[in-house]
Design brief:
Blueprint lengths: L1 H10 L4 H12 L2 H24 L18 H13 L4 E5 L5 H12 L5 E4 L6 H7 L14 E4 L10 H7 L4 E7 L12 H14 L4 E5 L18 E5 L13 E5 L1 H11 L15 H31 L3 E3 L11 E4 L3 H13 L12 E2 L6 E6 L11 E5 L5 E5 L4 H17 L7
Parallel strand pairs: 2-3, 2-4, 4-5, 5-6
Antiparallel strand pairs: 1-7, 6-7, 8-9, 9-13, 10-11, 11-12, 12-13
Helix pairs in contact: 3-4, 3-10, 5-9, 10-12, 11-12
This protein binds pyridoxal-5'-phosphate (PLP).
The site of pyridoxal-5'-phosphate (PLP) has 12 residues, from α5.
Length: 429
């Protein structure tokens, strides 16, 4: 079998040197992969149980149009999300078109003029700067009289409890905690850490709403931030919880009141969750959620595999090859433009869609340097599918994530290294 497999890899342009080097590394990851499989197994049971207990049936997959009144499939899917994430309610809609949109609804729906929003974990994800008004923007929370305060993490990545205590005041209404590092260099927070932070904040101010930006974190652990006191968790369906099948959408899961506030902001006061046609995509949202634990496991294995390979070759990787994982993003610092381009072109060559396309760095709005993006995805912008991007600037780090199957993630990483190797940019030891 090994011989046949190696032979096939060869036909798929992976050379013997690369394969041998990477196979040895994979061999050493067996135990970690088994642990990931156990987490997926647990989460699979969680989702399965939620679906069984709500008697999900074929009738839930049919479409509604127009207002979407009495969309049984939509309402039940929201119950399935709420049960899986251990919350009172959830809003799961194709009308939420991205993670940023979901976060905007959660924030704008639950904050009122005069309130203050606090981030106790440093600067939030790029797109939230305009939602909040950190960068001036039309329709931002700042324009509606919501102020913003921020407490950075300490040098070692831990919470600045003293600073947070000082920052909480009579106007502090909501705190936003970003679980994943996103594309920053700080560490990703574990669910336990988030729980500790929420307890600390609630001790000072019990009625403060604790929201967690859960993007890229779903199903990485057997508990979610909503299991440790978060009033709302928020994410995108073209990341982890859509399982690669959701063609669009976002979710918010949380307390009944928080969800109602978000719903009236998404649709309209007086309408809330009652309207919103599912337009025939309920089936993929259910099936994607059902597959998500397994898909996340594959993406996690890919991230760990890549970290270990590139670490062994002497590159700085974040998180490190041996670090415990709390999200699916992997950063590799390659050190120069040629390597970054080769890496991304290798990922692209390995894609099921658009594999013949060669990505090149180009200027992008919102970035001060050129950016290269590799994505050969079934769904536009889906980052649970194998994808990589990098700004062309020091330290020349590439961020990559996803992989609908572990085998594809593996092939993508092999191909990235093969490209570096073919161009004489790395030496295989
Ligand atoms: C992806 C992401 C978002 C939202 O991004 P969208 O592209 O709007 O879906 C927000 N926060 C974090 C940490 C993310 O990774």
């Amino acid at each position: 079998m090994d011989k046949q497999l190696n032979n096939y890899y060869k036909q798929m342009h992976i050379s013997y040197e690369i394969l041998e080097f990477c196979n040895k590394i994979e061999e050493g990851l067996k135990e970690r992969f088994e642990e990931i499989d156990r987490v997926a197994e647990y989460n699979q049971l969680k989702v399965l149980r939620a679906m069984q207990e709500r008697k999900v049936s074929e009738a839930h997959f049919s479409a509604t149009t127009g207002y979407g009144y009495n969309d049984l499939g939509r309402d039940t899917l929201e119950e399935v999300y709420a049960a899986t994430f251990n919350t009172e309610d959830a809003l799961v809609r194709p009308q939420i078109c991205s993670g940023t949109h979901a976060l905007n609804i959660a924030l704008a729906g639950n904050l009122r003029p005069g309130d203050e929003l606090l981030s106790p974990v440093g600067k939030p994800y790029d797109t939230l700067e305009e939602v909040i008004g950190i960068r001036e923007s039309k329709g931002s929370l700042a324009e509606y009289g919501v102020t913003y305060a921020q407490v950075d993490l300490l040098e070692d990545g831990s919470f600045d409890y003293e600073g947070i205590k000082k920052a909480i005041n009579s106007r502090t209404k909501l705190i936003t905690i970003q679980r994943s590092k996103g594309y920053a260099t700080r560490p990703t927070l574990s669910v336990e850490q988030i729980g500790e932070l929420i307890s600390f904040v609630k001790e000072i101010k019990p009625d403060v709403i604790c929201m967690v930006d859960n993007c890229y974190g779903e199903f990485v652990d057997i508990i979610e931030p909503s299991d440790v006191g978060a009033d709302m968790i928020v994410g995108s369906l073209i990341k982890n919880p859509g399982g690669g099948l959701a063609s669009t959408g976002g979710y918010i899961a949380g307390t009944r009141e928080c969800i109602e506030n978000a719903a009236v902001r998404l649709t309209s006061p007086g309408l809330g969750k009652e309207v919103g046609p599912s337009l025939g995509i309920n089936g993929q949202l259910y099936q994607g959620f059902f597959l998500a634990p397994q898909v996340v496991a594959g993406a996690l294995k890919g991230a760990i595999y890549a970290a270990n390979i590139y670490e062994k070759l002497g590159f700085h990787v974040h998180p490190s090859g041996s670090a415990k994982r709390h999200d699916i993003i992997q950063a590799v610092t390659l050190g120069d433009k040629e390597k970054v381009v080769a890496f991304c072109q290798g990922i692209q060559k390995a894609a099921p869609v658009d594999s013949y396309v060669t990505p090149e760095p180009y200027p992008m709005p919102g970035y001060h340097s050129d950016v290269i993006m590799a994505a050969g995805a079934f769904i536009q912008g889906s980052s649970i599918e194998l994808s990589a991007d990098a700004p062309i600037e020091p330290p020349y780090s590439v961020y990559f994530q996803g992989g609908l199957t572990w085998y594809h993630a593996k092939y993508g990483i092999l191909m990235s290294l093969q490209e570096l190797y073919n161009r004489g940019l790395v030496e295989i030891l």
